[in-house]
Amino acid sequence: MEIKQMVESIVRELIDSLEKQAAKRPKVLYIFYDSTAHEAFTDHFIWLNNHQVNHDILFLDGEASSWLGKHQIECGGRGKTIASDEFAPSPLEVPLEYEGIVIPEIDLDNAARATLGMKGTIISEIIFSTLVQNKFVLIGDDISGLKRADRRTLKTITLPKSYANLFDYYKMELQMYGVEFGPLKQLAEMVVNKIRPDSEVAEVGSTVEKADHTEDNGHIVYEGRLISADWVARESKNKSLRSLRVGKRTLISSLAQDMLKEKGITIEYAAER
Question: Which residues touch 128 (CB under 8 Å, ≥6 apart)?
Fold first, then answer.
């Protein structure tokens, strides 16, 4: 009888472990500049969990070092160690176990490094590695380009016009490489739409690509902030779309631009009011 119970217990454990493996949930990584910045994103994490998407958080404690759980990750360099302990991955290895990366805020320096393909900081190396693996990188659009520490030190929250223009240029360049930008409040929705594009998520409360637009003989006026390849595929499939009118601040992903060009859909930019 004891042997029978033991066998039954072992079988139950094996079945439970197999069920857990089969139900393995996708996971994304959020990157924050300090250990308090994530507190404003609690709703994001609730949204992800409700849609069966796990997340980890990486905290930067400098440009070249960060903390992921209990592991301190450091950038490599000439004559330097790659990581502070034998179990910590290098920045290039970090994206391997994630579906994609979310960076709510990026600063001018890291945007420049990522645009030029320069390594040396945690963010630039992770962006490089993620894009090389054809995974998604989502970055907040409504950001200043100044990291939190710089804002506290310099007592300002915005870049001067010349640097702001440079920052906008880097954002456009990053889009060409596959980085996508979206409103901070909607990054979690963008993640779910990326991972589960065929689910009901896009129809329940999602406003990432929801836009008030009017149609007139194949002409659409788009008033949203982000046009993705998924949106282009849906609209061109369901409608005889021939031209698209967008605002100057509307962001169009590089893949979406290629799809629009391939389908012969012209883009018109509305004048700023």
Answer: 92, 114, 117, 119
pLDDT score, position 202: 41
User: Looking at the 3D structure of the chain, how many domains does it have?
Assistant: 2
Q: Alpha helices of the chain — where are they, by DSSP H?
A: 2-22, 42-50, 108-116, 122-132, 148-154, 161-177, 187-195, 229-238, 254-262
Q: Are residues 60 and 190 in the same domain?
A: yes
Identify the domain boundary among 165, 194, 223: 194
Structure tokens at 21: 């493996």
More confident site: 48 or 84? 48
In this prediction, residue 128 carries a pLDDT of 95
Instruction: For residues 205 and 226, give the distance between their C-alpha atoms in angstroms, rounded to a whole number.
Output: 16
Q: Domain with 55 in it: what CATH number?
A: 3.40.50
Same domain? 190 vs 222: no
**Residues whose CB falls within 8 Å of the CB of residue 260, separated by 6 or more in sequence, listed in order:** 232, 244, 252, 267
Which pLDDT value is given to residue 99? 94
